[in-house]
C-alpha cells in the first residue's frame, strides 16, 4: 500500500536537500543549459527526467531487496527499519546543517561511478534531447549521501512499488532547484538555503525519524 506520509517525506527530502543537489549536480545542470541555447527548456526537462527515472528504478530495486530480506527473517526487517529511522534523523540534521555526517555515505558508490563517469562525456558534448535524457539517467547514479540515505529508508518498506513511488517523489522534490539551475535561476535555491526554512525542514524529518523508531520498537 502506498503511504501518503512516506511520499510526502520523500518529497520534502528532495526539496529541502536540494541545496546539496546543487553542489553535486548544479554545475552540470548550468553547463548543459548554457550549451543548449534556445533549447534550454527541452534540455532541462530531458536531463531531469532522466535523473528522476534512475531514482525511481533504484527505489524499486531497493524495495525489492527489502522484500527479500523480509522473506528471510522478520528480525532483519526490524533492524532495517531501525536503520531507516536513524537515516531520517541524519537527513534531518543534514538538511538543517547541524551535522554533515550524511555526506560520508557518498564514498559507498565511488567505485561504481568511476565506471559510469566516462560514459557521460559523449552525452555532455551533445545537444540532442535523447542524449540529455541518457545523461540524466547516468547522472542519477552519482554518489550522493542524500540519495543513499533515502534509499536506505525506502528499503525498509519492503515494497518495490512504494520504493519506486517514494524515489519518484524524492526526484520531484529535487526538480525545482536543479531545473532553475539549468534555466539560470537562483531565487529558489536562495529561499531553500534560508536557515529558518532549513531548520524547520530538519526538525520535521528528525521528528519523523524519532516517530519511525518509536513505532518499530514499541509497536513492531
Characterise the protein shown here.
- The chain is mainly α and 220 residues long.
- It has one domain.
- It has helices at 4-16, 18-36, 40-72, 74-95, 110-124, 129-139, 145-155, 160-182, 187-192, 195-218.
- Helix 1 packs parallel to helix 8 (160-182), helix 1 (4-16) packs antiparallel against helix 10 (195-218) and helix 2 runs antiparallel to helix 3.
Principal-axis shape equals: globular
State the domain count: 1
Strand/helix succession: HHHHHHHHHH
Secondary structure tally, helices: 10
Beginning-to-end CA distance, first to last residue: 18 Å
What can be said about the biggest beta sheet?
A: none
Poorly predicted runs are: none
Radius of gyration: 17 Å
Keywords: Membrane, Transmembrane, Transmembrane helix
Pfam family, one: DsbD_2
Protein name: Sulfite exporter TauE/SafE family protein
Defining traits:
220 residues, mainly alpha, 10 helices, Sulfite exporter TauE/SafE family protein, UreH-like_TM_dom, transmembrane helix
Quickly describe the structure:
It contains 10 helices and no strands. The chain has helices at residues 4-16, 18-36, 40-72, 74-95, 110-124, 129-139, 145-155, 160-182, 187-192, 195-218.
Provide the fold topology.
Elements: H1 4-16, H2 18-36, H3 40-72, H4 74-95, H5 110-124, H6 129-139, H7 145-155, H8 160-182, H9 187-192, H10 195-218
Helix pairs in contact: 1-8, 1-10, 2-3, 2-8, 3-4, 3-6, 3-7, 3-8, 4-7, 4-10, 5-6, 7-8
Amino acid at each position: 500500500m502506498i503511504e501518503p506520509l512516506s511520499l510526502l517525506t520523500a518529497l520534502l527530502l528532495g526539496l529541502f536537500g536540494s541545496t546539496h543537489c546543487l553542489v553535486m549536480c548544479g554545475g552540470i545542470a548550468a553547463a548543459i543549459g548554457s550549451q543548449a541555447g534556445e533549447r534550454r527548456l527541452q534540455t532541462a526537462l530531458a536531463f531531469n527526467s532522466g535523473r528522476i527515472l534512475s531514482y525511481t528504478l533504484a527505489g524499486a530495486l531497493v524495495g525489492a531487496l527489502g522484500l527479500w530480506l523480509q522473506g528471510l527473517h522478520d528480525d532483519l526487517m526490524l533492524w532495517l527499519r531501525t536503520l531507516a529511522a536513524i537515516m531520517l534523523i541524519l537527513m534531518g540534521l543534514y538538511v538543517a546543517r547541524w551535522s554533515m555526517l550524511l555526506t560520508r555515505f557518498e564514498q559507498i558508490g565511488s567505485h561504481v561511478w568511476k565506471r559510469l563517469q566516462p560514459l557521460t562525456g559523449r552525452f555532455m558534448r551533445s545537444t540532442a534531447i535523447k542524449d540529455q535524457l541518457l545523461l540524466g539517467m547516468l547522472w542519477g547514479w552519482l554518489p550522493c549521501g542524500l540519495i543513499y540515505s533515502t534509499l536506505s529508508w525506502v528499503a525498509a518498506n519492503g515494497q518495490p512499488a512504494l520504493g519506486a513511488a517514494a524515489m519518484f517523489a524524492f526526484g520531484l522534490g529535487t526538480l525545482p532547484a536543479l531545473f532553475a539551475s539549468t534555466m539560470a535561476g537562483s531565487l529558489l535555491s536562495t529561499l531553500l538555503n534560508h536557515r529558518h526554512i532549513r531548520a524547520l525542514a530538519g526538525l520535521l524529518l528528525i521528528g519523523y525519524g524519532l516517530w519511525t523508531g518509536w513505532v518499530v520498537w514499541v509497536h513492531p
